[in-house]
Design a protein that fits this description.
By secondary structure, the protein is an alpha/beta fold. It contains 13 helices and ten strands.
């Protein structure tokens, strides 16, 4: 029976933490260990965490003396304690259906070559009210992922993950441990988009499994990181897109595709470069390659970028 290491990284989520931990411990699939890491919370989180310290499934409970400033540093620490063949990062403000691990591990048993698996999600608010589901992401790839099963990571990256992180919530993801060591180290340079980096890099040249069931409850609320960091998300996304295009070019060896895609990336970067320093080289490229310019779009977006620069300090 395949063992899963469940990492619960927490920061100031005392309102949701007990429900998260209980949803892990009550999984129908019981071959797992639990690693609970608190990032110097100022609320009652640590009291809740220590109440589970003696539970037979709980391997580690640990609290940072100083806040790390990055959830991906907590992921890295959790990976260092993990002994399972698979890892589930169960974020502390989400929770799971009791059958989540059972259904996911059945897929991994059927497709042992897969390095990553994820399910669809139900989106909830701070009071557990259902406000939607992951259809707004899954409808993008519905023609490709038609049912639960195994799929090509290269195709998924080329068609979908290169445009957006269409795996919206880490709590819906289970990953094979053996592929993580180098990726988690590089992901430390990102504060909000490290998950997109890890998913993309895992998927390249590998198979993954998709579970077409709403078995993860993805919570969105005022404290959600992505609601607070619009500018930083955009800046990190642009950095990642450059890396991803180069990865895909190494697979496709299609110069026309690469340059058209890279110009698309550069055009998006041009708008945001004013946040840091205006990128004249990109600007010049566009006027030399005018067929790739959408000048109206550029003129529309630039004032928005300058406004964010003035209002948000990243």
């Amino acid at each position: 029976m395949l063992k899963v290491s469940v990492i619960i990284p927490n920061y100031n989520h005392s309102a949701f933490l007990k429900k998260r931990i209980d949803s892990v411990l009550s999984q129908s699939y019981q071959n797992f260990e639990v690693i609970i890491l608190d990032d110097c919370s100022s609320d009652a989180s640590w009291d809740i965490i220590t109440s589970y310290k003696s539970h037979e499934k709980v391997k580690v409970v640990e609290q940072n003396i100083v806040n790390s400033g990055s959830t991906f540093k907590q992921w890295k620490k959790g990976f260092s304690y993990a002994s399972g063949e698979y890892i589930w990062i169960a974020e502390s403000d989400d929770f799971a259906h009791p059958k989540f691990l059972e259904r996911m591990m059945n897929l991994f048993k059927s497709y042992p070559e897969a390095v990553l698996g994820y399910s669809d999600s139900i989106i909830i608010d701070a009071e557990d009210k259902i406000i939607g589901n992951s259809q707004k992401w899954s409808k993008v790839y519905s023609e490709f992922l038609t049912k639960s099963g195994s799929y090509s990571g290269n195709t998924f990256c080329e068609k979908y993950m290169i445009k957006h992180c269409v795996i919206p919530n880490a709590s819906a993801v289970v990953i094979k441990n053996e592929h993580l060591l180098n990726l988690i180290e590089v992901s430390q340079q990102y504060k909000v988009c490290g998950d997109w980096f890890i998913w993309f890099k895992l998927l390249i040249n590998h198979q993954f499994v998709y579970l077409k069931e709403d078995l993860n409850y993805f919570r969105t609320h005022s404290g959600t990181v992505r609601k607070q960091k619009e500018l930083l998300i955009k800046a990190e996304s642009l950095n990642l897109l450059k890396i991803f295009y180069e990865d895909l070019f190494s697979l496709k060896r299609n110069l026309k595709w690469f340059y058209e895609s890279y110009y698309d990336w550069s055009f998006k970067n041009l708008q945001w470069s004013s946040v840091y320093s205006f990128n004249l080289s990109n600007f010049a490229i566009y006027f030399k390659k005018s067929r790739f310019i959408n000048l109206k779009y550029f003129l529309y977006k630039t004032p928005r970028m300058l406004y964010l620069k003035a209002k948000i300090n990243v």
